[in-house]
Amino acid sequence: MSGRVAAAVEVSPSFVVLPRASEAGPIYLGECVCRSTQGKAFTLSADTPPTGLSVVLGTPAADFSQAVRIEWDPAKDVERPARGFPKVRLRAIVEGKETIIDVGVYCRTQGDS
């Protein structure tokens, strides 16, 4: 038997690809939702995102969830780590205990396929 221990707060999706395609042109924002796995209220905050990205936290919902909007300003170079993808770090506090939540962000450029 195998499994995993759920964090007090989890995010879905945990990875965002920007821009998204639409008939009107590229959309440089994506949304994910943080949700309590224990049915408890939580407080959510965001660390300062990498240059070129911004984070907007939605209003907490009655079902112990909260939307998070991640935006990319394509006019700015995104600060990229030496390995992997840029990430947005969120911090959720449930009953005084902190859970760190990372959302990966892949910023597609013209040369990417």
Descriptive notes:
By secondary structure, the protein is mostly beta strands. The protein has a single domain, classed as Immunoglobulin-like, CATH 2.60.40.10. Helix content is 0%, strand content 46%. It contains no helices and eight strands. It has strands at 9-12, 15-18, 29-36, 43-46, 53-57, 65-72, 87-94, 97-107. The strands form two sheets. The protein has a four-stranded antiparallel β-sheet with strand order 1-3-6-5, with no helix packed on it. Strand 5 and strand 6 form a beta hairpin. It starts with 8 loop residues before the first strand and ends in a 6-residue tail after the last strand. The model has no long low-confidence stretch (mean pLDDT 92).
Strand fraction: over 45%
CATH class: Mainly Beta
Strand order of the largest sheet: 1-3-6-5
Strand/helix succession? EEEEEEEE
Low-confidence segments: none
The CATH architecture: Sandwich
Distance between the termini: 40 Å
- Return Rg in Å: 15 Å
Query: Strand tally, please?
Result: 8
Number of helices: 0
Sheet of most strands? 4 strands, antiparallel
Based on CA inertia axes, which overall geometry fits? globular
In CATH, the homologous superfamily goes by the name: Immunoglobulins
List keywords for this structure.
4-stranded mixed β-sheet, Immunoglobulin-like, 4-stranded antiparallel β-sheet, mainly beta, single chain, 113 residues
